[in-house]
Structure formats: C-alpha cells, structure tokens
Amino acid sequence: MLAADDSPADRIDRFLTVHLATPSRTLSRSRVKALILAGQLSEDGRTLTDPSASVKPGSKYLLTLPRPINALPRAENIALDILFEDKHLLVLNKPAGLVVHPAPGSLTGTLVNALIAHCGPSLTGIGGVMRPGIVHRLDKGTSGTMIVAKTDVAHCRLVAMFAAHDLDRRYQALVWGTSIKGGGIIDQPIGRASYDRKRQAITTKGRNARTFWQILRQFPPFGSHVECRLETGRTHQIRVHLAHVGHGVIGDPLYGRAPRAAQMPDNFARNGLSQMRKFDRQALHAAYLGFSHPVTGEALSFETPLPADMASLLALIESTVSARAR
Fold first, then answer.
1. Mean pLDDT value across the chain
2. CATH number at residue 128
C-alpha cells in the first residue's frame, strides 16, 4: 500500500515506478503500465486502469504483483497419439487445439507439458528451456504429424534437415473457392504484417517461402480439397499463400475469408455456406511426413487420415453439392 499524501501532481504510472523502487527490485515503467491496464491497481479500494491518471494527494494506492511464473514447464498427464518412438525421437499426431509450447496466454496444457511427462527428465534442456525437444511447430488450430527430438544429437540433426528442406511434408486443406485448377507453386516471401503483429503477410521484406500445391477434388460453388507440400516452413505459410491466391482455408480466423451469401448462386448453396462457416478452426492437417532417421539413416514415413472434424466437414460439402445437383 502506497500513500500519496504529500506527492505533487504526477502520472500514476511514473509515480509508482519511482516510489516502488527498492535496492533489490525495480519495476520498469512499461511493466507498471501493463499491470495498471490489466486491472492490478486500486485507488482507495477502487480499480484504476488509466496509467496516465493524475496522482491524488491523500489517496492510497495498491498495486498487486502477480506471482512469478515458473521458468521451467511442468509435466502434465496429457494423452499423446504416438506413431513412432525410439531413444532418439518420437513422431506423433497432434490434435487441433493443442498448443505446441508454453507462451503468454498458454502457459500450461501444451504439447511440451505432455512430452515432459512422457519422456521424463531426459528431455529437459534439449533445444531450449521452454521448448524442449521441439524442432518444428504446428499452429494450435492445425492437426497432424510432428517430430520431437529426445536427444541433443537428434535435435541438432533434425534442425539441420529442416533448414536444408530435407523432409517431405504434405498437408491437406479445405479451402474456399474453385477457380484454381490443377497445381502449381506459390513462391512469395512471407514476413510479419506491418499492420498486425499477430498476422503474417506477403512482403518484399519477408523471408523466402515456397509452397507446392495440387487440387485433389473440387466442390462447386463452395471450395476445394487441396494438398500442399512445403519446401520452406515459415509461420502460417500455407494459410498465407493460399489466401494470397484467393483461396483462404475454411475456418481460418486470420486469413480464411468466407464468401458472402450473395455470392452463392441459390438458396440451397447459401444454406450450405452457412453450415460450412460454423467450422471453428482452420481446416488444415499435416497429413504426411517422410524423412531419414537423423541417427540411423532409416527411411521413415507417416501418414495420418483427416481428423474427425475435417472428415465431417468434407462429408458435409460432398453431401451438399450432391444434393444440390439432384
């Protein structure tokens, strides 16, 4: 509790930064501001969320500091769908909705927490404190095949293989629109969007990114079933590239813009569109992974079918198109 009895008029965030400093602890002004915005400051018992508010002489201020977060992820008993495992690595089928590693907003319940419980202390520190064993990542809303390193040797060699594009990675996606034909290459650099730090975008300042795609099936007037093969592995690469050519992934909250009902040719199609719009994650699945074992050299390949939600979405599209054609 800090009293402001004799304080001159000042911004509350600056006042707290100065008066809460001790020889053993210093809070930066940006940290104090973030705490105020998060509702951690009270003025005479009332929550104050304006960092620029003036200090009121005679008022009492209480700033609550959250408990420190453990720097090491803890083991959690989360079921894993393991496709292959030996002493060097494991391959698993990640479900949609599972975050790969701890990050702000997702500090527990991640794949890393599950891996620590499964592998034990031997995994600690391999590739980093917060991302032990992780050599590549799938977005939270993307399902499918992933490799995890269990030793430093395997980790280093797998990282080198990813950097050299020495793996065969194929994804399946359900996308809006049917104008694309056959197959091709999308070769466009990707970087962080200047207008939104959570989004990626095609930009000349981005890193080289190449996606090979081919149409598996088309379902006019709704969308297409597409296979994509990655040469590079940029953040959101498939989602950004497909949106760039006008075929955003169904359910993608960032890039998958659905058609408007007015663009559908009849009421039947509009009703089908309304059902497809309810799909609540990007319809993207890492369906195939092929590579040489980083230690033994054995050729390995893994193929996983579409998960139940994507299979149901595909069945819905098929049945809607079939019924409309009758």
1. 90
2. 3.30.2350.10
Interhelix angle 12-19/29-37, rounded to 10 degrees, is: 120
Q: Which of 5, 86, 139, 252 is catalytic?
A: 139
Q: What are the tens digits of pLDDT across the range 154-206?
A: 999 999 999 999 999 999 999 999 988 889 999 999 999 988 878 999 999 89
Q: What is the pLDDT of residue 115?
A: 95
Give residue 35's domain range.
Answer: 2-63
Of 144, 164, 184, the residue that ends a domain is 164
Specify if 27 maps to a domain. Answer: yes
- The tens digit of pLDDT for each residue in 264-307 reads 899 889 989 999 999 999 999 999 999 999 999 999 999 999 99
d(CA 151, CA 158): 11
**Annotation says 86 is catalytic:** no
